[in-house]
Structures are given as structure tokens and as C-alpha cells.
Design brief:
This protein has 484 residues and is of the alpha+beta class. The chain is built from eleven helices and seven strands. α1 packs parallel to α3 and α2 runs antiparallel to α3. The two termini are 68 Å apart. Bound molecules: adenosine-5'-diphosphate.
Length: 484
């Protein structure tokens, strides 16, 4: 900031001093003109006065009588004016003193010339004035000599002044052009310097924000003490706080997984033994309570397992072991694990599976299909029908110009109560359920579909639900095709 400021002050100073030099030169010229004009006026008035005196002495006319005192006053005024104009120039003042003396002498002589007529009023007495006229002529000549030096000096100034003025004007013009040019250059350079400094630092900050998202270490704080640097420092502090919070969250999860899951598993073991009568027969009422406790503990363990599962996927710790796998095999494995649950409700699971393969982590995808199937069983009426289908579909490419992708679509259709349209996206978020009672009545936690979504997206696929035309819902998932 101080560099352009100093430059601007210097520029204004140069312009002002050049301008005042030009003005001084113009004033000098005007002053010289005033002096010359006044000197000429003095000479003219002296002649006028002499003429008036002479004319009066010869003709005794009223006009000359009146004109004489007037011109006499003018001579005094001219001298006063000259005193003021060249009062501060000792050399010129010295020359002017002589002009004063000549003028005084002249005035006396003119008075004398005029009074003679008044006194004598005869032609004879005027004879003597012949010498007086000679004296008048010589006096005018003396005045010319006295003022010549003054005029010469001023005329020299008048001759030099136009050249000096145009020289000053040229300098002023050049200074203006150079100054404005430099101003533009400095402004452009400063704009480039500042914008480069700002954009570079903003780029670092923007990269930092994507590094946070990827979990990579941040760039060191940007230099400076301005708003951008302060914003970056706040961002670094915020990320440090987030990292601390993340460490605490992980510690909490570890505590939950070890300190809660292990004792719960042993409680479940004891309850299973109790309900199986391994520790002796239990009274009917006690057996009922033990069974309820067993299923509650079972639900708690599933909830903890689901939570830890989701955390692993979110942290990216869950590595997929991807390989081409037959969809038929995946569906069979999932359906087989749910045979007893389906039989309990008299539900039939029909399958129409094309001989297609997907590129997937087999166990993870079986987990997804099991979740969809168990939900379908849970929400189907007794004796209902569930249809599982799989076929190849072509999806429109996300980027223009690239060929359409071939995906495998697996659908699980049921004829249960269905999922209302406004909740079809929401139920894939954590702890979201269609009805508040779903948690207690069907023993769910609302995490299963969130896990399914994470797993499918890890495979580069997508998942969703739509209305089944015959009532109920159709859950679908699309996974990239696997070639053997
Ligand atoms: P959970 O079943 O453990 O509660 P999910 O995430 O698997 O958790 O399901 C979330 C919610 O979605 C369920 O609680 C239920 O309200 C709804 N839902 C899931 N599948 C179906 C289905 N086939 N029919 C109707 N509602 C369903």
C-alpha cells in the first residue's frame, strides 16, 4: 500500500511544482506587460500635460485649462503605479527614481509655462517662452532616457517568456503522460500481485477442504495476517477439533464393541441355556419371561453389530473382496438362510434369475439380499408370496458421450403394506422407519437398509424402492455386471 501512496504523492508534488513554475512565468510576463504599459502611459501623459500647458499658454482656451490638472494627476498616478509594480526590484527602483526627478522637474516647468500666460497675458511676455518650449522638449527626451532602461529590462522578459512558458507546458505535459502511464503500470502490477496472492491462498484453502473430505493431512496455514489467513487459521482449528472428536468417537465405539457386546453375548448364552432347559426345567411363567429377555438381548446385539458395521463402512475400513459371482448363487444363499423364518409364516419365495454375474463381494451382497428378504417376510401377510428376480439392464451413462453401462438389477417384491411414496428415500437413512411401532412390533432398529445402501454404493451401484402394482413394495438394487 505504501509504495503506490508514495508514488502518488511524488507525482502530485511534481505536477504542482511544474504548474506553479508555469504560473510564475505567466505572472512575470503579465507584470512586464503592466510595467511597459504604465511607462508608455507616463510618457504619453507627460506629453499630454506639456501640450495642455503649452496650448493654454498660447490660446488660453478652457479645454486646455481643464485638461492640464487632469494630466498632471495622471502623471502622479503613473509614477505611483510604477512604484508599486517595481518596488521589489532594487535595480529598477533605482532607475525609476531618476524618472521621478525628471517628472518633478517637468511638472514645475509646465506649471511655470501655464502661469506665465496667466500672469502676462500679452504676446510680448510670451516671447520668452521660446526657451521654455526647448526645455520641455529636452525634458521629454530625458524622461525617454530615464524609462528606456526600465522598458528594455521588461521587454527582455517579454521576449523570453513565451519560450519559457511553452517549455514549462511541455514539461507539465510530459510529466502527466509519464505519471499516468506509470500509474497504470503500477495499478496493473498491484492488481496482478494481489489477485495472484489471493487466488493462490484461496486455492490452498479449497484444496484443504477437499483434503478434509478425503481424510488427508492439510496444507500448512497460509501466510499473512489478513482475513483470508484468519479464515484459514479458523479452518485449521476447526479441523483439529473435528479430528479430536473423531478420535473420541472411535474410542467410544471400541468401548461399546468390547465392553457391551461381549457381556451381552454371554447373557444371551445363559438365556438360551435357560430357555432350552439345560439348567433344569423352568416354570411356565419364568420361561416366557426368559424368552422375551432372550429376544431383547438378541435385538441389542444386532443393533450394536449393525452400528459397528456402518461405522466400518463409513470409515472405509470395510474392504470389499470383489470378484465375478453368479447372481443365482447369491440369491440361493440368502433365501436358504431365511427358510425357517419364511416357513413360520407360510411364505413362498419364488425366483426368476437370469444366468448373469455381478462384480461383487459375495458375503456383503448376500447380507444385502438377506436384509431385503427378511424385511419382505416381516412385512408380508401370512401365506404371502415373495418374488425375487434378476436380469441385466442398461443404464444411461452419467457423463454425456460415454456408452451406457450394463448393470444387473435384482428385485425383491412383496405384497405387504408397502412403503409410502414420501418415505421411499428416507427409509434408507439411519434409524428411519415407516411406523414408530416398527421397532417394537417387528424388532427392527432402522439400520438394515442404511447398511444395504452403503454396501451397494461401495460396489458402485444403487438401491431403491418403488410401489408394487399388485400391492406391497419392490426393493431393487443395481450392481455392475461381472464378466467371467
Ligand atoms: P429394520 O427392518 O431393522 O427396522 P430397515 O432399515 O431394514 O430396518 O428398514 C427400515 C424400515 O423400512 C422398516 O422399519 C420399515 O418401516 C420399512 N420397510 C423395510 N422393508 C419394508 C417392506 N418390505 N415393506 C414395508 N416396509 C418396509
Amino acid at each position: 500500500m505504501s509504495i503506490p501512496l508514495v508514488f502518488e504523492i511524488l507525482f502530485v508534488w511534481v505536477l504542482t511544482s511544474l504548474n506553479s513554475q508555469l504560473e510564475a512565468e505567466m505572472r512575470r510576463e503579465a507584470h512586464a506587460k503592466d510595467v511597459v504599459r504604465t511607462v508608455f502611459k507616463l510618457q504619453r501623459d507627460l506629453l499630454d500635460c506639456a501640450t495642455a500647458a503649452a496650448a493654454f499658454s498660447l490660446t488660453n482656451d478652457v479645454y486646455s485649462d481643464e485638461r492640464f490638472p487632469l494630466t498632471r494627476r495622471w502623471i502622479k498616478q503613473d509614477l505611483e503605479q510604477l512604484d508599486i509594480l517595481i518596488g521589489n526590484n532594487p535595480e529598477q527602483t533605482r532607475k525609476l527614481k531618476y524618472a521621478h526627478v525628471v517628472a518633478e522637474r517637468g511638472l514645475k516647468l509646465f506649471d511655470d509655462l501655464k502661469s506665465r500666460r496667466a500672469e502676462a497675458a500679452t504676446l510680448d511676455s510670451l516671447i520668452g517662452t521660446g526657451t521654455t518650449y526647448g526645455r520641455v522638449r529636452s525634458l521629454v527626451g530625458q524622461m525617454g532616457g530615464a524609462t528606456r532602461d526600465i522598458i528594455e529590462e521588461e521587454e527582455r522578459i517579454l521576449a523570453q517568456s513565451p519560450g519559457m512558458q511553452s517549455q514549462h507546458r511541455e514539461m507539465l505535459q510530459n510529466a502527466l503522460i509519464v505519471g499516468v502511464g506509470l500509474n497504470v503500470v503500477v495499478a496493473v502490477m498491484l492488481a496482478m500481485f494481489f489477485s495472484k496472492g489471493i487466488t493462490k491462498r484461496l486455492e490452498i484453502m479449497s484444496e484443504n477442504s477437499s483434503r478434509v473430505a478425503k481424510g488427508e493431512p492439510l496444507h500448512p496455514p497460509v501466510e499473512g495476517s489478513d482475513e483470508i489467513a484468519q479464515l484459514d487459521q479458523t479452518f485449521h482449528r476447526m479441523v483439529d477439533d473435528l479430528n479430536q472428536a473423531e478420535i473420541k468417537r472411535q474410542q467410544l465405539l471400541q468401548t461399546v464393541s468390547h465392553d457391551l457386546r461381549s457381556p451381552l453375548s454371554s447373557v444371551r448364552g445363559i438365556l438360551t441355556l435357560l430357555s432350552a432347559g439345560a439348567m433344569g426345567p423352568l416354570p411356565e411363567k419364568a420361561l416366557g419371561k426368559v424368552k422375551i429377555a432372550e429376544s431383547d438381548v438378541e435385538r441389542l446385539i444386532k443393533l450394536i453389530t449393525d452400528l459397528l458395521d456402518l461405522e466400518k463402512i463409513a470409515e472405509g475400513k470395510s474392504q470389499l473382496e470383489v470378484a465375478p459371482v453368479q447372481v443365482k448363487r447369491l440369491v440361493e444363499r440368502a433365501a436358504n438362510s431365511l427358510v425357517s423364518l419364511a416357513e413360520e409364516k407360510g411364505i413362498n419365495i419364488s425366483r426368476t434369475i437370469d444366468p448373469v454375474q455381478v462384480l461383487a463381494d459375495e458375503d456383503r451382497l448376500v447380507q444385502v439380499i438377506v436384509n431385503l428378504l427378511s424385511n419382505a417376510i416381516k412385512f408380508s401377510p401370512d401365506g404371502g408370496e415373495i418374488e425375487v428376480e434378476a436380469a441385466m439392464v442398461e443404464t444411461v451413462a452419467s457423463t454425456a458421450g460415454s456408452p451406457p453401462k450394463q448393470m444387473i438389477e435384482i428385485t425383491v417384491a412383496d405384497h405387504g403394506r408397502g412403503v409410502p411414496e414420501d418415505l421411499q428415500e428416507k427409509i434408507f437413512e439411519r434409524f428411519e422407519q415407516v411406523k414408530k411401532t416398527d421397532a417394537t412390533e417387528s424388532g427392527g432398529s432402522g439400520l438394515g437398509l442404511a447398511i444395504c445402501k452403503s454396501i451397494v454404493e461401495l460396489h458402485g451401484g444403487s438401491i431403491g424402492v418403488r410401489q408394487n402394482q399388485g400391492g406391497g413394495s419392490i426393493f431393487w438394487l443395481r450392481i455392475p455386471q461381472g464378466r467371467s
